[in-house]
Amino acid sequence: RARATGVGFTFSFSRLSSIFTSFLVVAILNHFGASGVFLRLKYHFMAPAYWINDPNGLIFYKGYYHLFYQHFPYGSTWGSMHWGHARSKDLVSWEHLPVALAPSEEYDLDECGGCFSGSAVEHDGVLYLIYTGTIIRGDKVIQSQCLAMSDDGIVFKKYERNPVIPAPPAEGSNDFRDPKVWRHNGKWYMVVGSCKDGKGKALLYSSEDLRNWSYINVLAESDGSLGSMWECPDLFSLGDKHVLMFSPMGMGEKKTIYLIGDMNYDIGRFTWDRMGEVDCGFEYYAPQSFVDPQGRRIIIGWSNAWDWMPWFQSFGPTSENNWCGAMSIPRQISLGSNGYLLFSSIEELKSLRTNHFRLTDLNVHPCQSVIPVHVRGTSIEILVEIQWASEMLDSFGFQLRCSPDGEQKTTLEYTIARQELIFDRTHSDGFSSGVCKMKINQMDQSLKLHIFVDTCCVEVFVNDGEQVMSNNIYPSIEADGIEFFCNGSDIRIVSLDAWNLRSIW
Ligand code: FRU
Q1: Confidence band, pLDDT 50/70/90 cuts, at residue 37
Q2: Does the beta carbon of 40 sit less than 6 angstroms from any atom of ligand 1?
Q3: Quick one: pLDDT at residue 28?
Q4: C-beta separation of 70 from 116 below 8 A
Q5: How far is the CA of 490 from the CAs of 145, 226, 416, in angstroms?
Q6: Which of 125, 230, 388, 483 holds its CA 20 to 30 A away from the CA of 244?
Q7: Which of 174-178, 251-255, 492-496 has the lowest mean pLDDT?
Q8: Of these residues, 54, 424, 429, 454, which one is catalytic?
Q9: Residue 54 falls in the annotated catalytic set
Q10: Is ligand 1 within 6 A of the CB of residue 178?
Q11: For 89-105, what is each residue's pLDDT tens digit?
């Protein structure tokens, strides 16, 4: 990936390697009969075409939910960043709007930079976007925080005195991006992602008027074990606690972290005592939160990640068909009784449900090997509760997106001994690879799964949202079967509900 700090070499290397991988990908897709055209998602948000990454500027403004996003409107790989824009009445169906921000000024006009991630707030009826202008000069990245305004939520004008924060404080470094702004006790606050000496940081600012900002403090920082750079930090209150969520670079498989603790506004410092992962899958990054009119704290994440490309800088099968990247389904978050976060799909998504299949109280024997689930399709929701009694049970789970010839299948399997939920895409499509493992806090002999399958992604919520796992797969459209299996001993399906989900497009 060409990081913000990357320079010419990374980009030209990526171009060469993407030409090379284009041939490989096309050859493989021909072999498996899949085409990215058919991979357009049914109920996940995508740009009309081309590249998408982080969600930006989530807000409810003048009767609509607004979703902005990092967008390259001239190609299906990362490029000079624009802010794409869409709005929705229900967070389910989306109306595409014109690009909201395009690189145009000396502080954001750069082939390798642009209008990087940020957030939105409303003040006196005006919608403000706060974003990072990024330019590269020589081998130096210059990132500054900028403002744009709109009276109608559609046409934005950049503030003539941008940037409002031209340079990082001494505690930060050139990596200085992704401002998230909120209001507290009559003042505006902003947290910005940064790093110093290989340790990620969140920097805190405040302002009376959104235009003049004062640096307050390092809100929180890595001790070396929490990543080398914190992208997209987001601080918010939840119940009587505060949550700091960010996407750390350099934490290996951990892509999005949350910390739970307390905020001291007097000194501008957040202290924490609990840590968790927002999503344990291969593909979930840079989530942003907002509060909706009902008071729900909702997050949307980019359902990809920078290191997901299996071969060099390949952006995957869809990018051969002029699109790449999507948003996760919106998730409502709350504090669980154990003090950790709970994630649930928003209620509104139930409006997508069509054909319903239900079974209850069914004993499954391993020798039966599979129980076909009588719902087929590439766009499906499954809600299942499983119980077991025998010590002999080894594992159970689903084969998802199975092709009629058995060549393609994606395994979601829970292994009792290891207490691990495994997502294995070895046989998914001939392109995807990797086995994603998530350790479950197993309290008793039961498990609840809430699974959202779409054309090329699968989101799995475990035990009422204690953990979530999102992964992408690219099976052919014919791979629309689902099977349940268990190994070692009997198992009881307490209940299983499955629905086809209609398309939002
Ligand atoms: C996170 C990120 C941000 C940056 C944006 C650039 O995915 O790297 O830090 O603002 O993407 O597109």
Answers
A1: low
A2: no
A3: 42
A4: yes
A5: 58, 42, 13
A6: 125
A7: 251-255
A8: 54
A9: yes
A10: yes
A11: 999 999 999 999 999 99
Hunting for tokens 């990024």 — which residue is that? Answer: 134
Output the CA 72–ligand 1 centroid distance in Å.
12
In whole angstroms, give the CA distance from residue 343 to residue 458: 15
Which H or E run includes 481?
strand 481-487
Which is the closest atom of ligand 1 to the Cα of 247?
1
Of 469, 460, 456, give the one whose Cα is nearest residue 408.
Answer: 456
Residue 32: pLDDT over 90: no
Percent of the chain with pLDDT over 90: 84
**Exposure class string for 323-345: b at 16+ Cβ within 10 A, else e:** bbbbbbbbbbbebeeeeebbbeb
Residue 207 three-state SS: strand
Evaluate whether 325 touches 304 at the Cβ level (below 8 Å).
yes
| CA 88 to ligand 1 center in whole angstroms | 24
Q: What are the tokens at 451?
A: 């699974």
Is residue 24's pLDDT more than 50?
no
β 50-61/323-324 pair status: parallel
ipTM: 0.99
| Residue 370 confidence (pLDDT) | 66
What pTM, to 2 d.p., does this model score? 0.92
For range 377-385, the mean pLDDT: 96
Residue nearest atom 9 in ligand 1 by C-alpha distance: 231
Residue 311 has pLDDT above 50, yes or no: no
User: Ligand 1 centre and the CA of 383: distance in Å?
Assistant: 34
Q: Are 204 and 165 in contact (CB under 8 A)?
A: no
423 contacts 412 by C-beta, under 8 angstroms = yes
With the most atoms of ligand 1 within 8 angstroms of its CB, the residue from 52, 53, 302 to mutate is 53
Beta partners for residue 259, in sequence order: 244, 275
Residue 17 has pLDDT above 90, yes or no: no
User: Could you tell me if 44 and 457 are in contact, meaning their C-beta atoms sit under 8 angstroms apart?
Assistant: yes
| Cβ 117 under 6 angstroms from ligand 1 | yes
The Cα–Cα gap between 440 and 338 comes to 14
Q: 333: helix, coil or strand?
A: strand
Residue 439 belongs to what H/E stretch? Answer: strand 435-439
Is there a contact between 301 and 256 (Cβ–Cβ < 8 Å)? yes
Q: How far, in Å, CA of 189 to CA of 191, rounded?
A: 7
Cα of 358 from ligand 1 centre, angstroms: 42
Q: What is the DSSP string of 367-419?
A: GG--EE-S--SSSEEEEEEEE---TT--EEEEEEEE-TTSS--EEEEEETTTT
